[in-house]
Amino acid sequence: MSTAQFPVLVPQQPAPPILTGQTAIVTGASSGVGQGIAITLAQAGADVVVNFNSSEKGAIATAEAITKLGRRAVICQANVTQEPDVEKLFAKALAEFGRLDILVNNAGKQNDAMLDEMTLAQWNDVLAVNLTSMFLCSREAVKIFKRQGINPAISVAAGKIVCISSIHDLIPWAGHVNYAASKGGALLFLKSLAQEVAIHRIRVNGISPGAIRTPINTPAWSTPAAYDELKKLILYKRIGEPEEVGRCAAWLASDQSDYLIGQTIYLDGGMALYPGFESGG
Ligand code: BGC
Q1: What separation in Å is there between the alpha carbon of 110 and the centre of ligand 1?
Q2: At 49, is the pLDDT very low, low, confident or very high (cuts 50, 70, 90)?
Q3: What is the 3-state secondary structure (H, E, C) of the chain?
């Protein structure tokens, strides 16, 4: 079926105010999906610690967008693969806001190569940023959430963790084995942690985005030819936007989703539904 007849519409509605009075840390919030999530959580009413590793400029842009929305933003440089940096990040959140309600484990990267050309450094780099960071940050968040307990004026849960994985925790990805392995790890990390901490009223859930318009995948959407190729993999025939991941994260972090534990939402325009079978098979 030709897609020319479909207008490529992207919803513009801001997130509803479902996080009023809550505070959040978003890792890797200086660009792309992390920036979209940080701004959308603020639209939903949260104050946000905007973590970045190298792009202070990007983090400042995120923080400016948040303060324009009337929310508080604090930027914090921390390499989330390093224990002391992670401790510093969480200490700063508590020092600035006095409490923590939400952690979004978003920091992620690709460092692509075919397996027989992949160095150990490339493997370790991607595993550290995409998976070890989730362990280090979630550990600090869980300690704080357990200590804080529930404040029903703020949320019926003691704390919420949202892990940003990828469609490639499900769909294998040749040429990207480090990335796919890290995301597959993230999928069972979040489910196992959810099982472990639900008794403390700490909720852990995940989002596995498909193709989202960000710097990580610019070659896949920035020319008409590349975008046409990409759309063959997407039933809904358009790329996703960072704010759309943000709206999903805001809902997962809110009491609206209080009964949801250890689940992953595939936010992908149907990429996981085997687009090749739309007409084949
Ligand atoms: C990757 C993108 C890719 C998308 C769909 C994401 O996890 O980071 O580069 O476009 O998956 O394949």
Answers
A1: 9
A2: very high
A3: CCCCCCCCCCCCCCCCCCCCCCEEEECCCCCHHHHHHHHHHHHCCCEEEEEECCCHHHHHHHHHHHHHCCCCEEEEECCCCCHHHHHHHHHHHHHHHCCCCEEEECCCCCCCCCHHHCCHHHHHHHHHHHHHHHHHHHHHHHHHHHHHCCCCCCCCCCEEEEEECCHHHCCCCCCCHHHHHHHHHHHHHHHHHHHHHHHHCEEEEEEEECCECCHHHHHHHCCHHHHHHHHCCCCCCCCECHHHHHHHHHHHCCHHHCCCCCCEEEECCCHHHCHHHCCCC
Angle between helices 83-97 and 133-148 (to 10 degrees): 40
Top mutation candidate among 112, 168, 176, 234 for ligand 1, by most atoms within 8 Å of CB = 168
Q: What is the amino acid identity at position 223?
A: T
Q: How far is the centre of ligand 1, averaged over its atoms, from the C-alpha of 31 (Å)?
A: 15
Look up the pTM and report it: 0.97
Which structure tokens are listed for 136? 């280090």
> pLDDT tens, 210-250?
999 999 999 999 999 999 999 999 999 999 999 999 999 99
Q: Is the CB of 170 under 6 A from ligand 1?
A: no
Both tokens assigned to 255: 């009491």
Over range 245-270, report the average pLDDT: 98
